[in-house]
Design brief:
globular; Rossmann fold; single chain; 2 domains; 12 strands; two-stranded antiparallel ribbon
């Protein structure tokens, strides 16, 4: 039986019998009390020490593993090329967590968090007939300048900018800023990750694994809310797409606290959804921060490439963009790894 003494151990732990890979694609209630009892027994049986005693601190950084992205019947299921992308990714991720409970010091999980009246949801916009754009519509700067789309005047009192003229001016400023910065164009997404709704919750299989790790290692999972700002998108967990209004007022800000937290670890392992969007832009912003501080820090970042998938929808296949981003990250010094490879082989290389 493997033991753990606070240092890296070359044996993987077994996977608990309760884990059912076939359940990764469905919604269910985690039996907390039962799993807590099992986690305490597991820690005793495998000589797991509290995470505070780790001599090498390893963070598992999970991006937006919520029902809205991870279950086939939900709003923005990340199907990837296989059609089962996020489900298959989460089976591999859960296995990775259970086998490496003794190596993972802390898990940080972002939660994409939205309300209806945000700049990327249909209700925000109307055409000349008063109709809202369909999901996956791209609103370009040219579209706005030609008047093909305009802000829905009915929402003006419910947004951060109260009067319609200011809201319309911000919309033009926003799309112009996206275009100039080379960020993702403004796409209208289906209503998703709605605060208070079941789509916002972590997918059950991952939630269970995170809870089990928390109890077994006495390591509180850190949950990070992202995407709550009404007047900007927030693909990245580390900064918004646009941070100010047309007249320079701050509407969102860089998550400096999370940046500091991640870079305080000896190693950061990253997985989540979607590879082409929230994962890619989060890693991009992390890389930008690292290059400004010390390029050598890229060597502590590991990308679990078999635990993330790109967006593939009728409106577009973003697989090539995802692969190009990961190649760029690897060229900068980050490491792309697979969950099935022995973790000691790449953490100590």
């Amino acid at each position: 039986m493997p033991t753990y003494n606070g240092k890296m151990n070359h044996a993987e732990l077994p996977v608990p019998e309760f884990f059912e890979p076939g359940n990764a694609g469905r919604l269910w209630r985690v039996p907390y009390e039962e799993r807590a009892r099992q986690a305490r027994q597991w820690a005793h049986a495998h000589h797991l020490k509290p995470s505070a005693e780790d001599t090498r601190r390893v963070c598992l950084f999970l991006i937006d593993l919520q029902n809205t992205f991870c279950l086939p019947d939900f709003e923005l299921f990340v199907a990837g090329k296989s059609g089962k992308g996020a489900v298959e990714d989460n089976v591999r991720l859960c296995l990775f967590i259970y086998r490496n409970l003794h190596r993972i010091t802390e898990i940080v999980a972002t939660m994409d968090t939205h309300t209806a009246m945000q700049i990327f949801h249909p209700i925000f916009w109307v055409d000349s007939n008063g109709e809202h754009p369909r999901p996956y519509t791209v609103i370009s700067l040219k579209d706005l300048e030609m008047g093909l789309w305009r802000v829905n005047s009915a929402i003006a009192g419910g947004a951060n900018i109260p009067d319609y003229d200011s809201l319309q001016a911000h919309a033009l400023h926003y799309v112009r800023r996206l275009t100039g910065a080379g960020r993702c164009p403004l796409m209208i997404w289906p209503y998703h990750s709605m605060l208070g709704g079941v789509g916002h919750a972590l997918v059950s299989s991952v939630e269970e694994a995170l809870f089990f790790h928390c109890i077994a290692r006495a390591s509180q999972t850190h949950f990070e809310i992202k995407g709550r700002f009404l007047l900007t998108e927030n693909y990245s967990a580390l900064r918004p797409e646009v941070s100010d209004t047309y007249d320079g007022n701050l509407i969102a800000f860089k998550n400096a606290e999370l940046m500091e937290k991640l870079l305080s670890f000896d190693a950061v392992i990253i997985a989540g959804q979607a590879k082409s969007h929230c994962v890619a832009w989060t890693v991009e912003d992390l890389l930008t921060e690292i290059l400004e501080r010390d390029p050598a820090l890229t060597r502590k970042i590991y990308l679990l490439e078999d635990c993330t998938s790109p967006v593939v929808v009728s409106g577009g296949d973003f697989s090539d963009q995802a692969e190009a981003a990961f190649r760029r990250f690897a060229e900068a010094g980050m490491r792309t790894v697979r969950s099935t490879e022995p973790i000691d082989g790449w953490l100590e290389s």
